[in-house]
Amino acid sequence: MDQSVSFSVNNNNASIHILNASNYKTWKRDVEFTLGIMDLDLCLREEKPADLTDSSTAAERTHHAQWEKSSRLSLLTMKRSIPEHLLSGLPDTTNAKEFFNAVEKLYDTGENAEVGHLMDEMTTIKCDELKGV
Q1: 9 conformational bin, left if phi > 0, alpha if psi -120 to 50, beta if neither
Q2: CB 36 within 8 A of CB 12
Q3: 3-state DSSP call for residue 105?
Q4: pTM attached to this predicted model
Q5: Contact indicator for 108, 24 with CB cutoff of 8 Å
Q6: What are phi and psi of 57, to 5 degrees?
Q7: 103 burial class (0-12, 13-18, 19+ CB within 10 angstroms)?
Q8: Beta-carbon neighbour count of residue 113 at 10 Å?
Q9: How far apart are the C-alpha atoms of 51 and 40, rounded to whole Å?
Q10: pLDDT of 48-99, one tens digit each?
Q11: What's the DSSP call for residue 17?
Q12: DSSP H helical segments within 46-130, as ranges?
């Protein structure tokens, strides 16, 4: 059974398939779309800004705050779409881009995993006489 987590922000609805061992590409696409539509993908598009100092400008402070908020909420969004038992193998970081890259490193196994997942789905489909297979 394919499960997902749904989000609704500013009248925009999006959902992320729950990550499992074989749906990384779908999960990644869902995460990128959801964070983009929620306008939270700044932390994935840009590197972390330099730490603030006493001489930081107002624009630098604003950008830093926006990036931090983006990272915090993106991280929460991603973690919400990963089962607890899979989270234990991922780094405990406050940087969403680092977390996203760590997930990729663990689960992006290429085309073979996706083909295997599709084959599993095809071999477990059952005809219920109400609709075609």
Answers
A1: beta
A2: no
A3: helix
A4: 0.76
A5: yes
A6: -80, 170
A7: buried
A8: 16
A9: 20
A10: 999 999 999 999 999 999 999 999 999 999 999 999 999 988 999 999 999 9
A11: E
A12: 58-80, 84-87, 96-107, 111-124
Please say whether the beta carbons of 27 and 41 come within 8 A: no
DSSP, res 94: S
15 contacts 9 by C-beta, under 8 angstroms: no
Token pair in block for residue 19: 């990550």
Cβ(26)–Cβ(18) under 8 Å? Answer: no
Q: Give CA separation, 107 vs 20, 24, 72, 102, 123, in Å.
A: 9, 6, 22, 9, 23
What are the Cα distances from residue 100, in Å, to 19, 49, 56, 90? 12, 18, 29, 10
Q: Which two tokens stand for residue 9?
A: 């922000």
Tokens, residue 102: 């760590």
Which of 117, 75, 109 lies closest to 92, judged by CA? 75
Give bridge partners of residue 14 from the DSSP assignment: 7
